[in-house]
Amino acid sequence: MLFKNAFVFTGDAFERLDVAAENGVITAVGALDGPGEDCAGQYLLPGLVDLHTHGCGGRDFDTASSGQLREMEKTYARHGTAAVLATLMTGPEDAMRAAARRCGAACGGVIKGIYLEGPFLSPAKKGAHRADCLRSPDGAFFDELCALSGGKVRLITVDPCAEGALAFIRHAAKTCRVALGHTPADYETAQAGFAAGASQVTHLFNAMAPLHHREPGLAGAALAGDCFAELICDGIHLHPAVLKLSFAALGARAVVISDSMAACGLADGQYSLGGQEVTVRGRRATLSDGTLAGSVTFAFDGMRQLIRAGVPAAEAVRAATLTPAKAAGLEGVCGVIAPGRQADLLLCGGEWDLQAVWLAGERLR
């Protein structure tokens, strides 16, 4: 398999290059001899990396069986996402234990690890998480979930305001990456969380105190700091102007996430998220009280939203590939086109329409 004359994303920019792959692995990138598919005027990207997604195609990671998890992997891949962290909602302890076990056993393909978004979140900023299942940071329960997953937990969200949160962050950071989120934290508390070992922020601006010029809060700490920051780019959670401003401040620290739930890729209707009923109307997913409940947008569509908002294409692609790979500790596995990497590739037209997808060299669309 040889792609000729494509605008290839190299990690920071696009270069007109050829890419060769054999037996599902990229073998060479550069000016290559031989006949191949002429991709002049088209963009060749690595498969996208979505480190915060709860589900798609009618399934979610909290409840999906092993067979359904494989179906979800195929759905993600067909829509351009080659790597995900199975993101778990706050739920009853036994349900979280079972989900950690199932998702951990499924890791190795598109599913690269687990993201524990809950249950150590603030009731005041719980978002769509179940209030009755929230709890204070608990190292023993965290360790149990990690063990049940087979060591596959790569990321966890913590409210730094909670009692014992800083000690917990120091403990968890020895095992995985820690994000601050679902919190009313002020700037000083956020800084303490980063000093304790947190390295990113969960869906910037959502489920946190608003940015204020005299009290910047967690949002200001993220924009002015050196952490990674997730952005839900579905056109619902953040205004396009806020996306542009965020990228101007974050640069290579910005991470595109879908925060998608089971309805992603399906029609309007009734669905569930973390055991709660969700209504989807016109790309907006809400609980019965109107609270936003994730998105119905795949990461590729979020990346396109960024480009339409005026973010330079190379920055938008980086935020959906290499940067989330780095944020999840997966930069040696995915998120870049390079010899020796799995041939997870996307071919896009000049208007950023997704024309073809390959996963490990197999064409899926």
List the helices and strands and how they pair.
Blueprint: E1 2-9, E2 14-22, E3 25-30, E4 37-38, E5 43-46, E6 48-53, E7 55-56, E8 59-60, H1 66-78, E9 81-88, H2 93-106, E10 111-116, H3 139-148, E11 153-158, H4 165-172, E12 177-180, H5 187-196, E13 200-201, H6 217-224, E14 228-232, H7 240-250, E15 254-257, E16 269-273, E17 276-281, E18 284-286, H8 299-308, H9 313-320, H10 322-327, E19 345-348, E20 354-359, E21 362-363
Parallel strand pairs: 1-4, 1-5, 6-9, 9-10, 10-11, 11-12, 12-13, 13-14, 14-15
Antiparallel strand pairs: 1-2, 2-3, 5-19, 7-8, 16-17, 17-18, 19-20, 20-21
The CATH architecture of the largest domain can be named as: Alpha-Beta Barrel
Q: Which fold name is given in CATH as the topology of the largest domain?
A: TIM Barrel
The proportion of strand residues reads: 25-35%
Biggest beta sheet summary: 8 strands, mixed
Shape: globular
The radius of gyration over CA amounts to 20 Å
Using the coordinates above, name the CATH class of the largest domain.
Answer: Alpha Beta
CATH homologous superfamily assignment of the largest domain? Metal-dependent hydrolases
Tally the beta strands: 21
Mean pLDDT: 96
Total helical segments: 10
Number of domains: 2
Structural class based on helices, strands and sheet pairing: alpha/beta
Helix content: 25-40%
Low-confidence stretches: none
Distance between the termini: 16 Å
